[in-house]
């Protein structure tokens, strides 16, 4: 009897905890309400099954408790019961999977007018690339990655010259405009995750993965790496700022393009560098 009471308390307590607990998702900042909905559907299905099964076990503990005068009945098969259990289980599994597939299809089908932004992950930082004036991201090659060309942009591709490169700063995006993220990794698996967007995706070395969102409120959010990617994984964080269109454009205009960065690097290389020395003048 005590076990039955404990089981009932577990069922009731779990439901009460779910309803009254202060923890819930952070306020959503993207168009992906449907992803929240899929999680809510899963909560409902697993919640109902959990409560029903726990209460059923409690019922059985009481109903079929030991009695001297009762003998167990051998019943290896029950076609009717098995059919019902199979149907109900299938419905439950379909109910949890089908909405996810439906949303996933949309998640990886960006609208044709979506802006493109590239996200580059490497141990252990995030960098970002905008396509610049021409709206086209230049081609890249991992073999071209160097100190002066950390994105590995192909210098002979005209589309890459005006690409805007952001390193060591937050990703800025305009409010209300759909954006397609193109994800690339320079070393190992990473995962681009912004909880408020309800969106994440793996970055896989050697391929470009993608998904899209539309930011629905301004604010500053955190980019997390959701893939254990090495010793510094925990500090692989970045910032993301959702701004009004004007503020975004002002910021974007202040950023350097690939061409400017290359020119600066060349200038720097050609400039005569004075090195302080203790040697007497004229004797070098
Ligand atoms: Cu990572």
UniProtKB/TrEMBL annotation:
It catalyses: 4 Fe(II)-[cytochrome c] + O2 + 8 H(+)(in) = 4 Fe(III)-[cytochrome c] + 2 H2O + 4 H(+)(out). Pfam families: COX2. It is a multi-pass membrane protein. Gene3D superfamilies: 1.10.287.90, Cupredoxins - blue copper proteins (2.60.40.420). The keyword Transferase does not apply. The chain crosses the membrane at residues 40-62, 83-104. InterPro entries: CcO_II (IPR045187), CcO_II-like_C (IPR002429), Copper_CuA (IPR001505), Cupredoxin (IPR008972), Cyt_c_oxidase_su2_TM_sf (IPR036257). Its EC number is 7.1.1.9. Residues 112-254 form the Cytochrome oxidase subunit II copper A binding domain. Keywords: Copper, Electron transport, Membrane, Metal-binding, Translocase, Transmembrane, Transmembrane helix, Transport. It is found in: Membrane. Belongs to the cytochrome c oxidase subunit 2 family. This is cytochrome-c oxidase. It comes from Sneathiella chinensis.
């Amino acid at each position: 009897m005590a076990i039955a009471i404990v089981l009932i308390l577990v069922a009731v307590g779990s439901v009460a905890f779910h309803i009254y607990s202060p923890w819930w998702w952070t306020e959503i900042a993207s168009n992906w309400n449907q992803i929240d909905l899929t999680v809510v559907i899963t909560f409902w299905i697993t919640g109902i099954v959990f409560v029903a099964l726990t209460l059923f076990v409690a019922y059985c503990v009481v109903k079929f408790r030991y009695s001297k005068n009762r003998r167990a009945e051998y019943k290896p098969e029950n076609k009717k019961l098995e059919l019902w259990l199979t149907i109900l289980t299938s419905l439950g599994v379909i109910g949890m999977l089908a909405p996810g597939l439906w949303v996933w299809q949309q998640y990886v089908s960006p609208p044709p007018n979506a802006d493109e932004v590239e996200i580059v992950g490497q141990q252990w930082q995030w960098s970002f690339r905008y396509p610049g004036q021409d709206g086209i991201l230049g081609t890249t090659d991992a073999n071209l990655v160097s100190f002066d060309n950390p994105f590995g942009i192909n210098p002979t591709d005209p589309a890459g010259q005006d690409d805007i490169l952001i390193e060591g700063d937050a990703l800025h995006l305009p409010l209300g405009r759909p954006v397609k993220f193109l994800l690339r990794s320079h070393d190992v698996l990473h995962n681009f995750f912004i909880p408020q967007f309800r969106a994440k995706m793996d970055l896989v070395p050697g391929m470009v993965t993608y998904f899209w969102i539309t930011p629905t409120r301004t604010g500053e959010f955190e980019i997390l790496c959701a893939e254990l990617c090495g010793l510094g994984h925990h500090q692989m964080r970045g910032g993301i700022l959702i701004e009004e269109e004007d503020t975004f454009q002002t910021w974007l205009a202040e950023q350097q393009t690939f061409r400017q960065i290359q020119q600066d690097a060349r200038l720097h290389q050609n400039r005569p560098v004075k090195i302080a020395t203790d040697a007497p003048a004229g004797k070098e």
